[in-house]
């Protein structure tokens, strides 16, 4: 086998195993329906509102304002950017909640309550 043949096959996943998907591959314009720049701009525009919304949900759950500084307690399992990407992929009907959960390393229950 020559070097060219070896190099071309080393980029593929082993037979029977899916290649590993990355966040970047899930942001592909063919999947999202928008350029990476547009997705980035959307994420930048929505992230502050998502943070405010999350804090309101936590405040409602606690029943009062927070007593300690932000950053303590349980961390969100999905970043705001991931939540936006999950929503875009789901709204484009590209994946079920179960599949999105597997792709993002969380359960479908974590994915499904992404509020909008």
From TrEMBL:
Keywords in alphabetical order: Endonuclease, Hydrolase, Nuclease
Pfam families documented for this protein: HTH_Tnp_4
Region: Disordered, residue numbers: 1-46, 55-74
UniProt GO MF annotations: endonuclease activity
Ranges of residues in domain Transposase Helix-turn-helix: 77-112
Name by which UniProt lists this protein: Helix-turn-helix of DDE superfamily endonuclease
């Amino acid at each position: 086998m020559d070097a060219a043949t070896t190099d071309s096959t080393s980029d593929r996943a082993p037979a029977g195993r899916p290649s590993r998907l990355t966040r970047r591959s899930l942001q592909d314009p063919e999947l999202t329906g928008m350029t990476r720049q547009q997705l980035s701009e959307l994420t930048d525009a929505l992230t502050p509102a998502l943070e405010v919304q999350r804090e309101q949900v936590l405040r409602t759950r606690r029943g009062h304002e927070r007593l300690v500084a932000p950053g303590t307690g349980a961390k969100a399992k999905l970043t705001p950017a991931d939540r936006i990407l999950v929503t875009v992929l789901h709204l484009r009907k590209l994946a079920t909640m179960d599949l999105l959960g597997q792709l993002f390393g969380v359960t479908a229950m974590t994915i499904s309550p992404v509020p909008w």
